[in-house]
Records
---
Amino acid sequence: MHISWDELQTIEALVRTGSVEAAGRELSLRHSSVSRRVAALEARLGTALFARGARLVPSALTLRIAERAATMRVAARDIEDFVGAERRGRERTVVITTSDVLAPLLFLALAKARPVQAVEVLVSDDELELLPGQVDLALRPGQNPSGALRGRRLGRLKVGVYRARSGAPDWLQPSVELRARASMSWWREVPKDVPGAVTCSSLLAMRDACSAGLGRAALPAFLAHGDARLQFERELDAGPPLWLLAPMAHGIPKELREVQRDLFAALRATEGAFVE
């Protein structure tokens, strides 16, 4: 005799929730539909599955059916999750995280790479954790990646001194927080405590202040490249290594590997961004 999954999950929900109304809500069924399923199964089995009264009382056979159906319910949910993950894998959005300073470099590379998948960029100065299916790639400065990450080294960022063509000769100053960043060791080339200097709390603000003629600035070359208002004065030997990172995981989808490969090539090809 065949017992359908619809009938089994109805029995299991009735035993677990203790009422027709609650089981119906869980299964998205009217309570009359729940009752009809039970009645149809009882007719085929030739025995009552519940004693009707103020509350449903399952028979010993019903409890045994519900126990086995509960295991099937867990397995069915796992299958649904697995199939859903596979579908999302085929239609996935690639999530990339980087800082506000490196975001312009990332956008230039994305424009060249033109990935087929949708891309979400999370811009944050905090180093977000990379997790498969949540945050896929990161563009970050630093030394060798930790054991939880695997990466490809893009090279050292090119950093130079820039000034507007008719701009003031004084140095623009980084804020205390900006000067303290380990990844921006080029600030040691910038004199401190310059009287009357303009202080900026971000590299993007410093670039704009420099373009406006408020002083000379030490900037990653990709931020200044192509800006006709700025002229290059000299290179600083202090740019940090830059990495394209991914989580250390098995079974990374082919599509994500292709995005990482194409993005790496596009980043490396960005004119004037790296010194090696």
---
Amino acid sequence: MNVKAMFIDMDGTLLTASNKITRRNAKAISALMERNINVFLATGRQFEITQPYHRILGLNTPMVCLNGASVHDGVTGDAVQTKPVKLDRERLHHLTGDDPCNVLVHAPDGLYCKRVNAEIEEWTREGRVPPRYVGDLSKAGYKDALKYSIRTGGPGSSVSMLFEDEADVIDWDDGFEIVARGVSKWSAIQSVLEKYGIAPEETVTIGDGPNDIQMLSHAGIGVAMGNAAPAVKASADLVTGHHEQEGLADFIENYLVNSYAL
């Protein structure tokens, strides 16, 4: 297989649990670029907390953010593609307003949230951009939403099912996310590949979450992390090591740098 591009998930794949890129992972990615393999980040994160890692790695390729709801230029950071989600906001905020869950609205102009928690404080530290609004989201006045993140604290939710007729819902162990119908990392990757003149069959994707399933199942080679859930592993062609044991570097070194066995 002639690999021309690799799309890498961030949390649970590229990064450690403490949000660090290990020296070995960085070196492996550098080795790919030396072999003229285009390296991209494909993440559920918003741009502001993707770009710092993009810079650390020395990348200038587009960034697929918010599960594909936005794509940003790798040099200027400008959004070159956005896909807002359209749903009944009044109903969403009514259903979640009195609930102890936290709600995050990822908008083109920043983050709106019901309350600040440790996760958002960490994002502020990483991206150096605080939330644009904190409080009652029914009064936030945001124009568009690219992704809604509802943190219920546990898997499954009767609320998430209420939006499946309006948008695409991604269930997580701690809640669910809502994006526009047809939006995914893979749909955004396809638009990037077209601009680069690269075929899906010449592409490797790697990730660990339910938002990675489409890109793992449709790329030339999809690689699941050892820490991925069974459903994610089932969608992949290969399974590598745990992200805390540098499973990303294991795969790159064994299959793309020291061997071209794919």
